[in-house]
Structure formats: C-alpha cells, structure tokens
Design a protein that fits this description.
By secondary structure, the protein is mainly alpha-helical. It has one domain. The chain has helices at 15-37, 42-67, 89-107, 111-136, 146-149, 154-159, 170-188, 197-214, 228-246, and strands spanning 4-8, 11-14, 143-144, 161-162, 165-167, 222-223, 226-227.
Length: 254
C-alpha cells in the first residue's frame, strides 16, 4: 500500500496522519456524547482536548524514540518525521493521563469519572489509528504464507505483502480487539457499576490483548531484552484490577 494519500506540489499527505486524525476526531465525538450523558459541558472536553492531544502525541513520540534511540541519535531531524510512523500508544496514554490528572485537580473534578468517559473514546480511537500502521507497512507479525491469511479481504492481503513476503497482520488483530472492547464497554457503561470500573476494564482488556498480540510483533520496542509493551501491559492489568477492586461509590451514589 502506498503510504502517501496525495501529493500537492511539495506537500505530501500520508495515510498514517489521516488515520491518526480520524481516530482523534472519532474519540472526541464519543467523549463529548458520553460527557453530556454525565452532565459535563462540551466546553470542558474541548479545553481538555486542546491541551491533552498535543502533549499525548509528543509523549507517544518521545516514548518511541527513547526506546529506538540508536536509530535516531545520528540523525535527530528524523525524530520530527512522525508521518513515517513511530507513535507509541503507551507513551501517549501516560502523557495524557498526567494532563488529565492535573486538569481534574484544577477543575475540582473526579478524576476517575472523567477517565471512565475518556477511555470509551480512547479505545475506539486506537482501533482506527492502528490502520495507519497498515498504511506504513508496520506493526505486523512474522512472515507467513498466503494460505494462512487467505481468509482476509484482498486489500489487507495485498498490504501485508511486503518485500516479497506475506506477514501476519497484527495491526488488524489489535484493531478488532479494541473494537470488541469498545462494544463491551458501551454496553456495561449503563449498568450499575462503580466509578472507575470502565477505566479498570479498559486497562485490563487492552493490557491482555496487547500482551498477546505483542508476542507476535517483529518490531517491538525492547528494554533489557524484554518487550517493553508487554511489561507495560502487565502493569496496566494490575492497575486495572486495583481500580475495580478499590472502587467505592457507584454512579447513582457519587
């Protein structure tokens, strides 16, 4: 697949950027809708987005480049070439969480109530953003045979044919995992749940999926011989269990 959507003179618009933007806009739409259901003004979400999104993107890039430093230390200008890929979602989540924490402190809001709203949009945004990796021919698994991926739509099969080999489309598996997670979260959000339950569920659900899928990835970020995404996924799952276990007030009580 050609990673460039269109070229206008010296300007090149990349599919990767388009999918990231689509993910952000979809997440925003869902978060606004969910915020209104909790009587939270859209202005609050707008303010939060204007601060959180840039910092989350910067955090995602810094995270990626930190663990891929050997590929950037001799050509620092490539750090700014984000259209070539290289945004680590874990870095974006960490940076975004810091912003949301201080925002809720400033506005005297319940952190976990707001996070429960945000994760609903976040997980579907991730599902869409993964297709940017498909466009760049990255975030895939090992070499496989055509027979093993023949059940997939032809355009995905064609996109997974890279440099003379077919590859396992792990980007697709993660996208589907996130979509399923979104459907489950969309259903349980109206149940009689505790504040922080959705945030905890997101951490556990995404942590499990990413840990398994990461075992197939061939381009994982590494730390001391370990896949850093799997380490973070374990921490996410532990934190998710704690959030669910420690939850106190239910929404109709708090």
């Amino acid at each position: 697949m050609n990673p460039i959507l269109v070229t206008i003179g010296p300007l090149k618009i990349y599919w990767y950027s388009i999918f990231i933007l689509m993910g952000i806009l979809t997440a925003y739409f869902i978060i606004v809708k969910e915020a209104k259901r909790h009587n939270i003004s859209e202005n609050i979400i707008v303010d939060l987005f204007f601060v959180t999104i840039p910092i989350a993107l910067i955090g995602a890039r810094i995270y990626y480049c930190t663990f891929e430093w050997t590929n950037y230390k001799d050509n620092l200008i490539e750090i700014f070439e984000v259209w070539n890929g290289g945004l680590a979602i874990h870095g974006g989540i960490i940076a975004g969480l810091v912003v949301v924490y201080f925002y809720t402190k400033k506005k005297n809001m319940n952190l976990f109530k707001l996070l429960d709203i945000i994760v609903l949009g976040l997980i579907i945004g991730q599902a869409i953003g993964r297709w940017g990796n498909f466009a760049n021919g990255e975030a895939h698994g090992p070499i496989t045979s055509l027979e093993n991926i023949a059940f997939l739509p032809q355009f995905i099969i064609d996109g997974m044919y890279i440099d003379g080999h077919y590859y396992i489309p792990t980007f697709l598996y993660e996208s589907i995992w996130c979509i399923i997670g979104f459907i489950i979260m969309f259903w349980i959000r109206k149940r009689d749940i505790k504040i922080g339950f959705l945030s905890g569920f997101y951490l556990i659900w995404y942590g499990i999926g990413r840990f398994i899928i990461e075992s197939l990835r061939t381009d994982s970020l590494m730390f001391m011989g370990l896949k850093i995404a799997q380490i973070v996924s374990i921490l996410m799952m532990i934190l998710g269990v704690i959030l669910i276990y420690k939850g106190k007030n239910k929404y109709n009580e708090g």
